[in-house]
Design goal:
Chain A is an alpha+beta fold and about 210 residues long. In chain A, helix 1 crosses helix 6. The N and C termini of chain A lie far apart (about 35 Å). At the A-B interface, strand 4, helix 3, helix 4 and helix 5 of A face strand 4, helix 3, helix 4 and helix 5 of B.
Chain lengths: ~210, ~210
């Protein structure tokens, strides 16, 4: 059996494609990291050829999978990072779903920042983003408190760890994850643990710089 | 091996628990359909005992799974409604993820309706909800156009069908899914097909009435 040819299409960002890139590195599987620029004529021409009119999507030879979480779950199961039992897989899924619930307020905050109105940025941060972050961090902290491995699910690394850890970097770069705050120390230690996995460490050190 | 005891905790709504209930019916597996009332002292007291401070969650003997999509995927894989290959599973996942992207604008619309300000309802519908519905319907219609089975994934019923079909009923009840519109006929036929599966037909005919 020849190895399938993987191509991962996304913008020149970490965002929702980064955990998929990290999964390829963890598994030592070659892939084509196709990076496009949003808003360019090239992207507009390419867009209708994507499965759902958006990126990321993954092509495996001629088969295409849209939606970031679906891509990551597919790779995680193929490469052994989805959890060791059906129950562990369900927990990894649940954590990523919880993260997806957090992404919507995060996106609102990013849009406000991009629009640049200081009053509106403050309003969205206070009314929408901060409460959502509190809920999300409380859940992740609660899981880490009970974890004996330091990982979010079971005793090994799963794609849920990759999703949550890389997003902490995004939040840090956006100025909304305070590394020195006492209440964030479990999250800081968790991100360090994930970032110390040799393949992740090398990947993160050599990847293109991006805020999100 | 004794059958595990399943308990599904949710509010007295269809919402995100309904596809899980339908999966139990499809598989002819008994479960305890625990329905609580949001905002009651009982719910407030119960809330901190849930895995993520929210419902739905599923308990399987002593093991708990939070987050609706994680619950449905777990049951779908156990009962044979997740897709027949890793690739079909990824497509079912992608469709549900796309649905989750649509739920956030839908929730904004519901919140505006609940608040009751007519101008704001109209604004949210026009600026947020209608564009999101157009994107979502376009994707689902595109999938149905290519489908030879009439289902969203492969040649059989998956949990993605249940999620999308039941949501069409919610949209109909909310007055934002026009059954007579020419452009909606593929979606109408799709919902009929899913609703004609004997177990689903019986379940839907006998379930408690709820708008969402």
């Amino acid at each position: 059996m020849t190895m399938p040819q993987y191509k991962l299409y996304y913008f020149n960002l970490r965002g929702w494609a980064e955990p998929a890139r990290q999964l390829f590195k963890l598994a030592h599987v070659e892939f084509d990291d196709v990076r496009m620029e949003n808003g360019t004529p090239e992207w507009e021409a390419f867009k209708p050829t994507t499965p759902f009119g958006q990126v990321p999507f993954l092509s495996i030879d001629d088969f295409k999978i849209p939606q970031s979480a679906a891509i990551c779950r597919y790779l995680a199961r193929k490469f052994g990072y989805a959890g060791k039992t059906a129950e562990e897989e369900a927990w990894a899924d649940a954590i990523v779903d919880q993260f997806k619930d957090f992404v919507s307020p995060l996106r609102q905050f990013l849009m406000a920042q991009r629009a640049g109105d200081a009053t509106e940025i403050e309003r969205v941060q206070k009314e929408v983003f901060d409460p959502a972050r509190r809920v999300f961090f409380k859940i992740i902290n609660g899981i880490l408190e009970k974890s004996t491995s330091g990982y979010l699910v079971g005793d090994g690394l799963t794609w849920a760890d990759l999703v949550v850890a890389d997003n902490l970097t995004t939040l840090e770069k956006l100025g909304v994850f305070n590394l020195s705050a006492e209440e964030n120390q479990k999250l800081v230690a968790f991100r360090e643990k994930v970032g110390a996995v040799p393949e992740i460490k090398e990947h993160n050190a050599t990847r293109p710089e991006a805020v999100i």
